[in-house]
């Protein structure tokens, strides 16, 4: 099988179901952003596998990668020809993981600057890319119908990456750097 088809040489691509659209179509842009996020998560997994203390955190990330691929497939399949679903249980499972990690973290009073351990910094990159994905999905949802559970999941996912970054720094004994110029912003 050849990897190149030459169909995209004129700036077109096909959605699942055969509809041809331009590569700058909002839907194509959205699933491209999801694909980029999945790659960032793959890098995060690779960095975490380098740290024995973080091994138990890899499996949830690999599940997230599958969920992101599901979201990309839903976006590429405008009329749901593949009859894919994105159950609310994925959101609930993610919230459970967030709560477990967050309960082990010290409270914060200030904004946290991205950084610390390499894996924590990459979790912050994943968080910011997730926010971009969310903005893209919101824009698409103003023009076309998209899976609402997938949108909620992406919103929750950025929270997960924030908590994960903090947890990684705590686990690896890296100090967090706080932005204090605006004073305390969180009042516990």
Characteristics:
188 residues; mainly alpha; Hypothetical Protein Ta1238, Chain: A; two-stranded antiparallel ribbon; 5 helices; elongated
Structure description:
This protein is mostly helical. It has one domain: Hypothetical Protein Ta1238, Chain: A (Up-down Bundle). Helix content is 56%, strand content 6%. It has helices at 26-49, 58-76, 88-102, 118-141, 148-171; strands at residues 12-14, 20-22, 111-113, 177-179. The strands form two sheets. The protein has a two-stranded antiparallel ribbon with strand order 1-2. Helix 1 runs antiparallel to helix 4 (118-141) and helix 4 packs antiparallel against helix 5 (148-171). The longest helix has 24 residues, at 26-49. The model has no long low-confidence stretch (mean pLDDT 92). InterPro entries: CblAdoTrfase-like, CblAdoTrfase-like_sf, PduO-typ. Residues 3-167 form the Cobalamin adenosyltransferase-like domain. Pathway: Cofactor biosynthesis; adenosylcobalamin biosynthesis; adenosylcobalamin from cob(II)yrinate a,c-diamide: step 2/7. Its EC number is 2.5.1.17. It is an enzyme of class 2 (transferase).
């Amino acid at each position: 099988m050849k990897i190149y088809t030459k169909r995209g040489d004129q700036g077109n691509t096909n959605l699942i179901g055969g509809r041809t659209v331009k590569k700058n179509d909002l839907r194509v842009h959205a699933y491209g952003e999801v694909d980029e996020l999945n790659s960032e998560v793959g890098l995060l997994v690779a960095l975490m596998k380098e740290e024995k203390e973080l091994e138990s955190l890899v499996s949830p990330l690999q599940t997230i990668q599958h969920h992101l691929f599901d979201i990309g497939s839903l976006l590429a399949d405008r009329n749901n020809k593949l009859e894919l679903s994105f159950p609310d249980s994925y959101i609930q499972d993610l919230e459970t993981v967030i709560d477990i990690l967050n309960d082990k973290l010290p409270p914060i009073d200030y904004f946290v600057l991205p950084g610390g351990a390499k894996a924590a910094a990459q979790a912050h990159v994943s968080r910011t890319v997730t926010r971009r994905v969310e903005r893209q999905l919101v824009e698409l949802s103003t023009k076309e119908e998209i899976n609402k559970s997938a949108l909620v999941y992406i919103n929750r996912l950025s929270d997960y990456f924030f908590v994960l970054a903090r947890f990684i720094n705590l686990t690896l004994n890296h100090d967090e750097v706080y932005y204090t110029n605006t004073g305390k912003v969180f009042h516990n």
